[in-house]
Amino acid sequence: MIKIRSKGGRKILIGVLALLLSATLLAFVWIGNQFYDGGTILNKGEETIDNSKKHLKQMGFDQEAFLEKYSGKSFTTASSFHDHDISGTWLQPDHTKKRPTVIMVHGLGGDHTTVFPIATLFLEKGYNVVAYDQRNSGHNTASRNGFMHLESDDLADIVAMVQKENAEQPVVLWGTSYGGGTVAIGLGKHNLRNSVSGVVLDCPLSSMTYMIRLFIADMHLDERSEAFMMGIGSWMTKIRMGIGYNELEVVDYVQEAELPVLIFSSKNDDVTPPFMAEDIYQALPEGKKTLITVEDSKHIQIFDDHPELYIKSVEQLLSEIEQ
């Protein structure tokens, strides 16, 4: 055992220990911030606009003609939860706003215009469509993504906006991939299950912690180191966002959603594997829920590969809502 006999020696030891403690704390903060940044800066708004234009062009989709046909009107509304603006497009099959509305929530990597091709399905059924940009996408001015949790705040604002315009008219939520997770979390976090009439989830993301673990897996860490990294990331997310990783599981937000819910999934989806849709389906109350699983489609390609099945399934949901 080393004995420190002088006061000067003790001061030096205390100083060294303080430096080591500070260095360790700084290392924890740095690692935590890396995880936080990695999970909340998933794309850039300008890039998502370009990505969407390229995507629609590759599809041969005439956005200008679409907006003209369905009286597309841009809107911007302030978030009531955070300090940013939410933008999007209000579409109508005619010039009547007072009709049922489908709110469409896009996935990562694009903006709200990516949902326009599927929006045609609802517009042709006589529904208005409101498509908006999620956080850090398109013209939404939030600079970070929010693990679908903060995104559900924007969704709650859009639902309130639509219901103010269309009092007593049904509202249906449609979300794809990351947007599907946004919708599902909103059902519980903001009690949207009590204010909307039905939900469509297209290849929904059910677990951000699963995605974070995939990111960590690339580091090839042992089990203990992986758990340590998850703990640090969750700690920093709790500090900066107010929620930890244990609060990011979609299934925890749908257990009381007693409304018609239609879920699409594919066994060939390697982005949101079919267990994600199955987990959400199992977490929903018995009764008004339907899970459609196909064998072959890639991520969010079910509408393109199986249009008849997709349209028929959506029509059944809408019929149930309209009864």
Question: Could you characterize what this model shows?
Answer:
This protein is α/β, with parallel strands linked by helices and 323 residues long. It has a single domain, classed as 3-Layer(aba) Sandwich (Rossmann fold), CATH 3.40.50.1820. It is built from eleven helices and eight strands. The chain has helices at 7-40, 45-59, 63-69, 116-124, 151-165, 178-189, 208-217, 223-241, 274-283, 302-305, 307-322; strands at residues 73-78, 85-91, 101-105, 128-132, 171-176, 198-202, 261-266, 289-294. The protein has an eight-stranded mixed β-sheet with strand order 1-2-4-3-5-6-7-8, sandwiched between helices. Helix 1 (7-40) crosses helix 8 (223-241) and helix 5 (151-165) crosses helix 6. The radius of gyration is 23 Å and the shape is elongated. The termini are far apart.
Report the average pLDDT across residues. 91
Q: Structural class of the helices, strands and pairings?
A: alpha/beta
Ranges where pLDDT stays below 50 over 5 or more residues in a row are none
Find the CATH superfamily: Alpha/Beta hydrolase fold, catalytic domain
Under the CATH scheme, the architecture is: 3-Layer(aba) Sandwich
CATH class: Alpha Beta
What is the beta-strand fraction? 5-15%
Biggest beta-sheet profile = 8 strands, mixed
What is the spatial order of strands in the main beta sheet?
1-2-4-3-5-6-7-8
- Please tell me the total number of domains: 1
What overall form do the CA principal axes indicate?
A: elongated
Number of H- or I-type helical stretches: 11
Order of helices and strands: HHHEEEHEHEHEHHEHEHH
**What share of residues is helical?**
40-55%
Taking all Cα atoms into account, the compactness measure Rg is: 23 Å
Distance between the termini: 82 Å
The CATH topology corresponds to Rossmann fold
